[in-house]
Specification:
heterodimer, A: alpha/beta, Rossmann fold, 6-stranded mixed sheet, 4-stranded antiparallel sheet, 9 helices, 36% helix, globular
Chain lengths: 236, 260
């Protein structure tokens, strides 16, 4: 579980988060939605400790993360863009992440799932963007993390890999994990998310289950519900 | 930190730029030793090249490496590792791989030709140490500048300006000051100014140990008069260590407060 309270963050004169209060419960997939620049990535990066909040508190698994780093042992993160040390091979990268996390895991099933076995000995600089993204996904799901943070997880993946990814996310939810993702692809939200957080100009505009969202804004799916939420005059 | 260092080092040592840098020093050193009959002259030319090129490569590689691996930094920052371990580890990985290219490139030709009478093993070791220190200093400075500036063009610009200032402009300004205030006793001012420039300090270390008075220059002469050759080298080396410590300390402070 992740609890965010009164989170403020500005970059220079640009105020990105204006007092965010949120709870991301365990055993749920929460989709953080919002237009570009609404603060989604800043929120995720604050949870990861990459962005340091100006005000407010974030608690991961019940403990405040202020000036902490050990808590990241419990978090798996899938960044938006996958870039790795160019001259390492895929195998060396996997060993490196295990080594740095001080955790062992069996990469075999995930390598097979994403058809990555024959890339193991290749240097990362020679791999295509899509293949790197698959490796990125594999690294995020390799360990048994309590919390998964996925920033635009489907970006750059081929349709089959997206199917596998959704399967992985569902499996993790079944295990009772806290999963938080950002995306602009609303059908994906309908497909796998339980809850929606809609950020607008640094505030939480809506927070609740998908059912509550559809009911409140009378949409058949997430897409139309959000359309009605943002531009009621146009969709009524 | 050791683990980050290890992986950064292995990544970099396999890049083609490390190889090019190594081959550059190999070719230059072989060429100088082969072509000049007087080994002390060859060594002197090599010193001048090291004083110019080592800071420049440290500067360029430091910034290039940081900007090139920004997204990878993000991946590391999301792992359960201290920020200080990430950035110091990466900096050390970079400066050690550069140092290794430099050391191997210079040492291999000397193994073929022997040390010869001009320097001797002690002097040669000191020369190598100075080159490594310059690498450590300038890669720290440019790493720091890149860390502070997210804008790549601006970061590179500042890095190059710092290099240009310390390796070329500084001497000119120094000379103007000396000429302008020639009626006053300037020894202490000159000494203080020298401490402000790591390239000057390195030059002094190299010329003091070769004991070629004609090439000491004004600051070198002041250094020798003040400290004598041996302790002059020690004081200059201490000042160089200070030049490593300060940027590394600033890297620590800035990385702790920065948003990524």
């Amino acid at each position: 579980m992740i609890e965010v309270s009164g989170l403020h963050k500005s970059f220079g004169r640009n105020t990105v988060l204006k007092g965010i209060d949120l709870v991301l419960p365990a055993g749920n997939v929460t989709a953080v939605l919002g237009p570009n620049g609404s603060g989604k990535t800043t929120l995720l990066k604050s949870i990861l400790g990459m962005v340091l909040p100006d005000k407010g508190d974030i608690r991961v698994l019940g403990r405040s993360i202020h000036h902490q780093w050990e808590y990241r042992q419990a978090i798996g993160y899938l960044p938006q863009i996958a870039r790795f040390p160019e001259n390492l091979t895929v195998q060396e990268l996997i060993r490196m992440v295990m080594d740095l996390r001080r955790q062992r895991a069996d990469e075999g099933p995930l390598l097979a799932l994403f058809d990555l076995e024959h890339f193991l000995k290749k240097r990362l600089r020679y791999l295509s963007g899509g293949t790197r993204q698959k490796i990125n996904v594999m690294l995020a799901f390799l360990f048994d993390h309590q919390i998964m943070i996925l920033d635009e997880p489907t970006a750059g993946l081929d349709p089959l890999a997206v199917l596998h990814l959704k399967e992985l996310i569902r499996n993790e939810r079944q295990k009772g994990k806290t999963i938080c993702l950002t995306t602009h692809i609303l059908p994906l939200v309908d497909d796998i998310a339980d809850r929606v957080v809609y950020l607008l100009e640094g505030n939480v505009y809506f927070e609740g289950t998908i059912g509550q969202l559809k009911e409140k804004y009378k949409g058949g799916n997430t897409e139309s519900a959000i359309g009605r939420m943002l531009q009621p005059e146009k969709y009524d | 930190m050791i683990k980050i260092l290890k992986y950064s080092f292995f990544d970099l040592i396999r890049s083609k730029w490390s190889l090019i840098y190594f081959l550059f020093y190999l070719a230059v050193t072989f060429g100088l030793l082969y072509m000049s009959s007087d080994s002390s002259k060859a060594f002197l030319s090599l010193s001048n090249i090291v004083l110019l090129i080592t800071p420049l490569t440290g500067t360029l590689f430091g910034a290039l490496y940081y900007y090139n691996s920004k997204e990878f930094n993000e991946l590391l920052l999301a792992l359960p590792i201290r920020r200080s371990a990430i950035f110091i580890g990466r900096y050390l990985g970079l400066s050690l791989s550069l140092s290794l290219s430099f050391l191997a490139g210079v040492c291999i030709p000397f193994l073929f030709y022997g040390f010869q009478k001009a320097i001797g093993p002690g002097g040669f070791a000191l020369f190598l140490m100075t080159g490594v220190m310059l690498t450590l200093i300038f890669s720290a400075i440019s790493f720091l500048i890149a860390l502070k500036n997210d804008n790549t063009i601006k970061g590179f610009g500042i890095c190059l300006l710092v290099w240009l200032f310390l390796s070329i402009l500084f001497d000119g300004i120094f000379l103007i000051l000396l000429v302008y205030f020639e009626r006053y006793p300037l020894d202490k001012l000159a000494l203080a100014l020298t401490l402000l420039n790591p390239i000057d300090l390195s030059r002094i270390i190299m010329t003091l140990q070769m004991d070629i008075s004609a090439l000491l220059g004004y600051t070198g002469a002041v250094f020798r008069r003040f400290f004598g050759s041996a302790s002059g080298i020690i004081y200059a080396s201490l000042a160089l260590m200070f030049w490593i410590a300060v940027p590394v300390w600033l890297i620590l402070i800035i990385s702790r407060r920065k948003d990524f």
